[in-house]
């Protein structure tokens, strides 16, 4: 929290926030979800954890390795399908790329999807594909489409009344394409109370649930009262609907309730036993996994943990792909595998669905997909004269890997297949984003025809309500 705003800056930011709430729209009064029966009553999951590999995780370098070719100066790039050796997993005949042995050791507890196909939206932009993955709608839209987590928060509500129903860990808006990322980190027309509770740095999670330095509890309570007055006298208060006003107030009340609850201690990672903490402590993502586990224990509903998208950083491998992925694997392998082990040992994995995914994959030679190539964005030579060109640097949408665990997902199961030779595209059981979303909703007991009337038309969880769960993934 910025404690140095002057009066003018505070008013500017408050006005901008309330105007944004107005722009997002809200369901018409009296509108009802079209769920049949009580949402969640027949589901196999109560909680969802999304582990987001932001930036484009290459499938052939992670969970779907192909023939390994070591680097040689002046080698042909087209020879290179994988830059890492493949290593056996706990599943017979299934290999992961070197550096992911930890996750490979827990694959008997989940499902590997090797046939996710990202949307063909022309010129590839990370923010557009991330928007599509998280909302199931291709941008631009005439209304603000809700995030997957916001739909879940709206339909099921908080599992624990004092824990925010939608927690986002690790996402900052001070790097990369900030405004574009903000566009899908929102509840959209569902209202602010169903939007994400942001924890940009998990090591400072406790700061998110307590007053800023120098402010005692009584002063914070007075600010809460002033906040309600501000809403009543803001553009939302004057021009907004009752729904919008109440949504803003409830979002503040939820934060205030958390501040005063015993559950707020879950945000303090310093209380984690050292041995456990050290396993997760591979960076912000690893500690985000630890925080996700602690919040799941306290009754969280939907948690997103991201490696964060920053251009030319992390999984966004436009050069030095091999060395960059070696580092990314170190950041995720231990924490992800430990998260799964911990939840399983605590008896929570059966009702907690974990999804590990990325917006698209990568290839050394193909930009887009073989039958729909797009403008090349990476200077990748045909002959590799330098080790910095050794890696998967182009964006590839026709074959991506995804992992799913718990919450009714099959254990020790592999779904889909990609070709073993370039282009390493999906050749069996293609899966698209509406299928993934509806599989998650189905596990939670949220029906495919869930909708709200916006702009005098129904707005479904997936476009036109046509998404179908991939039942083969479920027990």
Name the descriptors.
alpha/beta, 475 residues, 20 strands
- The total count of helices amounts to 12
Strand content: 15-25%
- What average pLDDT do the residues reach? 87
Q: What does the main sheet amount to? A: 8 strands, mixed
Tell me roughly what share of residues is in helical segments: 25-40%
Write down the overall geometry: globular
Q: What would you report as the Rg, rounded to the nearest angstrom?
A: 22 Å
Q: Find the structural class using helix and strand composition.
A: alpha/beta
- For the record, give the distance between the C-alpha atoms at the N and C termini, rounded to a whole number: 44 Å
> Would you report the number of β strands?
20
The order of strands across the largest sheet is 7-6-8-1-9-15-5-16
Low-confidence stretches: 9-37
Protein name: DUF1501 domain-containing protein
Keywords: Signal
InterPro entries: Alkaline_phosphatase_core_sf (IPR017850), DUF1501 (IPR010869), TAT_signal (IPR006311), TAT_signal_bac_arc (IPR019546)
Signal peptide: 1-23
């Amino acid at each position: 929290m910025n404690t140095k705003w002057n009066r003018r800056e505070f008013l500017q930011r408050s006005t901008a926030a309330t105007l944004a709430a107005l722009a997002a729209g809200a369901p018409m009064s009296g509108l009802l979800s079209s769920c049949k029966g009580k949402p969640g009553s027949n589901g196999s999951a109560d909680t969802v954890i999304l582990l987001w590999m932001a930036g484009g995780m290459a499938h052939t370098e992670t969970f779907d390795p192909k023939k390994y070719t070591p680097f040689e100066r002046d080698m042909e790039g087209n020879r290179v399908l994988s830059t890492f050796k493949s290593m056996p997993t706990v599943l017979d005949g299934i290999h992961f790329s070197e550096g992911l042995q930890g996750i490979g050791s827990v694959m008997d507890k989940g499902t590997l999807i090797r046939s996710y196909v990202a949307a063909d939206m022309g010129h590839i932009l990370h923010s557009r594909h991330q928007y599509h993955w998280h909302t199931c709608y291709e941008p631009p839209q005439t209304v603000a489409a809700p995030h997957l987590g916001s739909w879940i928060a709206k339909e099921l509500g908080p599992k624990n009344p004092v824990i925010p129903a939608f927690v986002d860990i690790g996402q900052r808006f001070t790097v990369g394409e900030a405004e574009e990322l903000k566009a899908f980190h929102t509840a959209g027309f569902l209202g602010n109370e169903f939007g994400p509770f942001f924890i940009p740095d998990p090591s400072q999670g406790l700061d998110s649930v307590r007053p800023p330095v120098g402010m005692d509890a009584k002063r914070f309570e007075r600010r809460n009262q002033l906040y309600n007055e501000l809403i009543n006298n803001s553009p939302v208060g004057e021009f907004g609907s009752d729904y919008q006003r109440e949504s803003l107030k409830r979002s503040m009340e939820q934060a205030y309730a958390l501040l005063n609850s015993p559950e707020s201690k879950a945000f303090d990672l310093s209380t984690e036993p050292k041995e456990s903490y050290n396993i997760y402590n591979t960076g912000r993502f690893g500690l985000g996994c630890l925080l996700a586990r602690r919040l799941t224990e306290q009754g969280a509903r939907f948690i997103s943990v991201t490696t964060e998208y920053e251009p030319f950083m992390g999984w966004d491998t436009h050069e030095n792909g091999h060395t960059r992925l070696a580092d990314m694997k170190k950041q995720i392998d231990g924490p992800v595998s430990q998260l799964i082990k911990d939840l399983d040992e605590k008896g929570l994995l059966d009702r907690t669905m974990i999804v590990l995914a990325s917006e698209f994959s990568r290839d050394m030679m193909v930009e887009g997909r073989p039958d729909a190539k797009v403008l090349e964005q990476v200077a990748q030579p045909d002959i590799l004269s330098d080790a910095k060109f050794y890696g998967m640097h182009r964006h590839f949408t026709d074959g991506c890997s995804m992992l799913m665990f718990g919450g009714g997902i099959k254990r020790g199961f592999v779904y889909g297949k990609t070709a073993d030779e370039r282009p390493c595209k999906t050749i069996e059981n293609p899966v698209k984003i509406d299928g993934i979303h509806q599989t998650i909703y189905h596990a939670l007991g949220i029906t495919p025809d869930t909708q709200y009337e916006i702009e005098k038309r129904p707005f479904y969880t997936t476009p036109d309500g046509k998404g179908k769960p991939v039942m083969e993934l479920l027990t």
